């Protein structure tokens, strides 16, 4: 973990639409997982960490998050189902007014779960990953045979149970040529949302695994062709410049969000907060900066007042071409990828080929 004391623009007061609360809170309830994914952010392990938040600490955290009142709480991992009290956590969060999402791994454990019980516990949505468009490529990516079939089965079971389904696809240099097949698969499965993750070099993933900026631009153009036509929503994770492509096409302009359900401008630390299995608070799961621990400080205080969070919410604190870009308030680039590639969280987005028109 990287400890942050000071960061550019940390004390600058800005008109901050995301200043009071995050829109999305990702809580890594455990790092335990039975899979061995090539790109795993968490570098997940087979067994639970001895210093995970206890059930009592988890209950306290849910109550604190309810005070912060984020519109969405996502329970992730590792595999959150490896934590035996995960549905109790979900139910407590639901009872305190939060919309709860669950992001499980497609293992035999998930196959044995009653999805109606998951929904009755207060989970409203489930995100499942397909990182290969075929059985062979996905199972190779995930490191365990049978994962593709279990994922497809889980999509159908989740929809039958009344859960909103999001399918996550991580694009890398190695699976970019499957994009058309991914697209066709989404039309078959018809999730509520297709979230295209753009790989960040962290955890088990390296810079060599990143797609090139030019290749991504081409993919984003093809994704934009689907907006308003596909029977599912389309968004990106750590691929914020897709919003710029949409704006350039006139899809709602810079203030619109056609094809997306989250407000424009969200990025690491700006509308997003991540809490690790041991309680460490970071701007996102892909940006491993230690901004405090929920065992010692209220998560609302970290989000609203920590200098790094304050700086990351300031689009004028961005460096390089991102700082000059006319789309910086709706995009701002992946701060996690900038850090993973350059060591500077405020550097230009390495995976964007756009050259700003502004000379600011």
Automatic annotation (TrEMBL):
Keyword vocabulary terms for this entry: 4Fe-4S, Iron, Iron-sulfur, Metal-binding, S-adenosyl-L-methionine
Domain Radical SAM core: 19-235
Listed PROSITE patterns: RADICAL_SAM
InterPro entries linked: Aldolase_TIM (IPR013785), Elp3/MiaA/NifB-like_rSAM (IPR006638), PqqE-like (IPR017200), Radical_SAM_PqqE_MftC-like (IPR050377), rSAM (IPR007197), rSAM_sf (IPR058240)
CDD domains: Radical_SAM, SPASM_MftC-like
Gene Ontology MF: a single term: catalytic activity
Cofactor(s) named in the record: [4Fe-4S] cluster
Pfam families tied to this protein: Radical_SAM (PF04055)
Protein name per Swiss-Prot or TrEMBL: Radical SAM protein
Source species of the chain: Sulfuriroseicoccus oceanibius
């Amino acid at each position: 973990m990287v400890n942050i004391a000071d960061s550019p623009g940390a004390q600058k007061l800005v008109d901050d639409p995301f200043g009071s609360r995050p829109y999305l809170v990702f809580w890594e309830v455990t790092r335990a997982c039975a899979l061995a994914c090539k790109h795993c952010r968490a570098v997940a392990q087979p067994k639970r960490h001895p210093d995970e938040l206890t059930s009592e600490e988890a209950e306290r955290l849910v109550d604190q998050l309810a005070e912060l009142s984020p519109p969405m709480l996502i329970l992730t991992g590792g595999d959150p189902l490896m934590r035996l009290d995960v549905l109790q956590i979900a139910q407590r969060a639901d009872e305190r007014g939060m919309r709860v999402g669950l992001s499980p791994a497609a293992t035999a454990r998930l196959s044995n779960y009653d999805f109606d019980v998951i929904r009755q516990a207060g989970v409203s949505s489930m995100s499942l990953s397909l990182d290969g468009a075929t059985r062979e490529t996905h199972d190779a990516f995930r490191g365990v045979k049978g994962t593709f079939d279990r994922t497809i089965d889980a999509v159908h079971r989740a929809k039958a149970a009344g859960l909103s389904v999001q399918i996550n696809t991580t694009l890398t240099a190695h699976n970019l040529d499957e994009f058309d097949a991914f697209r066709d698969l989404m039309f078959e499965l018809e999730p509520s949302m297709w979230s295209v993750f753009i790989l960040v070099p962290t955890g088990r993933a390296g810079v060599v695994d990143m797609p090139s900026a030019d290749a991504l631009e081409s993919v984003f153009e093809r994704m934009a062709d689907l907006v308003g036509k596909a029977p599912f929503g389309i968004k990106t994770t750590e691929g914020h410049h897709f919003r710029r492509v949409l704006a350039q096409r006139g899809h709602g302009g810079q203030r619109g969000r056609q094809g997306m359900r989250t407000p424009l401008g969200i990025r690491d630390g700006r509308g997003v907060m991540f809490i690790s299995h041991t309680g460490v608070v970071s701007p996102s799961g892909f940006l491993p900066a230690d901004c405090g621990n929920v065992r010692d400080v209220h998560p609302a205080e970290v989000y609203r007042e920590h200098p790094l969070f304050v700086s990351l919410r300031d689009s004028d604190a961005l460096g390089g071409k991102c700082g000059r870009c006319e789309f910086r308030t709706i995009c701002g680039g992946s701060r996690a990828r900038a850090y993973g590639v350059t060591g500077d969280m405020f550097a230009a987005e390495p995976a964007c080929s756009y050259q700003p028109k502004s000379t600011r």
